[in-house]
Amino acid sequence: MAGADLEAAAGEAGSAGAVDAAGAPGATRSPAEAAGTRPGGDPRALVEVRGLAIAAGSLVVQSGLDFDIHRGEVLVVMGPSGCGKSTLLRHLVGLERPVAGHVLYDGHDLHRGDPAELAALRRRFGVMFQAGALWSSMSLGENVMFPMRLFARLPAAERRRRARFKLALVGLDGGFDLMPAQLSGGMRKRAALARALALDPELLFLDEPGSGLDPLNAARLDELVLNLRHHLGTAVVMVTHENASIFAVADRALYLDPLAHTMTALGPPRELLAHGPAEVRAFLQRGVVA
Fold first, then answer.
1. pLDDT digits (tens, 9 = 90+) for 107-141
2. Which of 254, 269, 285 is nearest to 89 (CA)?
């Protein structure tokens, strides 16, 4: 889903420029200024989320979200089912427009600007959705090559070489000609991850990657995510409610509170377990072995 589905959504992202909030004639500001971020912000920040409010249909599920995604980190978005984790992910990748606030990718507002420029911006990250979303009529190799065919302008032989390499990265070397229907659940997740890596993104978004997997395969996928971060320097945002994954992969964890309808904690998981708000400690204590 690294390129094709995001490109299809690009036309829905809007094209309004960053206009001065006071509406003064001709007064415009940069996205960072419009979002209220200070000049010379955290140099580690690849993505800055400022004052974000998100909705599912007409229901605002989270508001007042302010956080950064650092280069090369694994940030886990956690919270109980129904708190808005996957909804937040869809806003972070530009598939849905926020009710309020901004998502700034390297200082560029992901939801405002020229549609062609926004589409190019979105091709800098890869997305793996919960169900994998592989094309059932394409082999694994064809699935991985599809974003390259659309955007990379590579010779066919080079697309095949790169697709085989991406599949090998996720432990599916030799799987180029397999069809999605031939895969186990764990293999399907890995294939979807390989496709998310097709355009060499600097940031990966993973929506419940361990969902539906047994504990052993979920742990293997966690290990794979850490290896990708270590060897490629890829930043990762992972949506999950699985404590084993949170403690295994997260540099920092963001907690979405379903009652307060906002984020109530952000930090390393073990620090939150020891010193976080009561509801966050209770969430993280599920299944923890001393």
1. 899 999 888 888 888 889 999 987 667 888 999 99
2. 254
**Length of the chain in residues, anyone?**
290
79, 265 contact by CB (below 8 A): no
Q: Which two tokens stand for residue 186?
A: 């764990």
Q: Which residues pair with 238 in a beta bridge?
A: 76, 206
Q: Which helix (H) or strand (E) holds 193?
A: helix 185-196
C-alpha count within 13 angstroms, C-beta hemisphere, residue 256: 28
pLDDT of residue 132: 64
pLDDT tens digits, 206-220: 999 888 888 888 898
Contacts of 205 by beta carbon, 8 Å cutoff, 6+ apart? 89, 92, 93, 125, 126, 127, 128, 196, 236, 237, 239
Asked whether the whole model's pTM tops 0.90, one would answer no
Query: What local confidence, expressed as pLDDT, does residue 33 receive?
Result: 38
DSSP at 84: S
Helix, strand or coil, per DSSP, at residue 226: helix
- The DSSP secondary structure of 96-135, one letter per residue, reads S--SEEEEEETTEETTSS-HHHHHHHHTTEEEE-TT----
Q: Count the Cβ atoms, other than its own, within 10 Å of residue 131.
A: 13
CB atoms within 10 A of CB 69: 23
Residue 279 · residue 263 · CB < 8 Å? no
Q: Using one digit for the tens of pLDDT, what is the confidence trace for 186-201?
A: 888 889 999 999 999 9
The rounded radius of gyration (Å) of the Cα atoms in the chain is 19
